[in-house]
Amino acid sequence: MTNRLIVLSDLDDTWFSTQRAEPTEDKRLHLAAVDRQGAPLCFQTARQSALWKLIERTADIIIPVTGRTSYAVERVTLLARGGYTIASHGALVTLDGTIVSAWAEHLAPHLDEAKTALEQARNHLEPLVARLAPGGDIHLRVLHDLDVPVYLSVKSCAELPERLVAALSEASARFGLRLHANARNAALRPHYTCKASAARFVLEQLLERHPEDTVLTFGDSLSDIDFMGTGDMAVAPTNSQIWRQLQEFAQ
To answer: Which Gene3D superfamilies match (predicted)?
Structure first.
């Protein structure tokens, strides 16, 4: 039997980005995702689209590994293949839209504790957010995906204030959560939201009978590096956080 090519890939900012991130009109060439109302939201450049089409033609299995919830993954127009999805920063492993039973068993002992920690973190941060953004420009929301508590979402219309970033770091330690943050958004996540653990779990299922398969991984942020290490080779865009960090190390 011919060895298969398995691709595990992050989505946003690896294969496409929003209109805000790609403001130049001539770059918004290929639709990649829509919003909740079905309106165009994310686009690929011509080069991204060409490389993705090459992956589609050559990969036997394509698995999204994304911070998106499972229902947000459904709004992505790029083709996945093989049935598996790793969603909500690695909190969920689904097969054809249903949580894999063995993964559900792995999560079950931790769900109540995670729900409590996320709610406590939200309650702890709400007074500060109200002071920093009295106009409601910063939003806190505990998200569930397929009934699993997955993270406390922090979204801002502008760059997150330094005081809030510091408070998020303190809250992550206080309530036993992981912090993932960029300029405008942040997420406090339970410990089971781990892309690398989810990727290893899926690969164990896939490689058990086909150990000679080749695994290729794609990602853009430093938080992707651990899951990218589960592959035989890893690829990062040259405008990514990973690449910028590598350039700093190389100097």
So the answer is: 3.90.1070.10, HAD superfamily/HAD-like
**For residue range 161-212, what is the model confidence (pLDDT) as tens digits?**
999 999 999 999 999 999 988 888 899 999 999 999 999 999 999 999 999 9
Give the whole-angstrom CA distance, residue 115 versus residue 38.
30
Sort strands 17-18 and 40-44 into parallel, antiparallel or unpaired.
Answer: antiparallel
Only one residue has tokens 């909500």, namely 88
Identify the H or E element spanning 238.
Answer: none
The per-residue pLDDT for range 107-146, each reduced to its tens digit, is: 999 999 999 999 999 999 999 999 998 888 999 999 999 9
- What are the structural domains of the chain? 5-91+194-250 (3.40.50.1000), 109-189 (3.30.70)
Helices (H), the chain: 46-58, 70-73, 101-107, 111-132, 162-174, 195-207, 225-228, 241-250
DSSP per-residue codes, 133-193: -TTS-EEEEEEEETTEEEEEEEEESSPPPHHHHHHHHHHHHHTT-EEEE-SSEEEEE-TT-
Does this model's pTM top 0.85? My answer is: yes
What tokens does 88 get? Answer: 């909500």
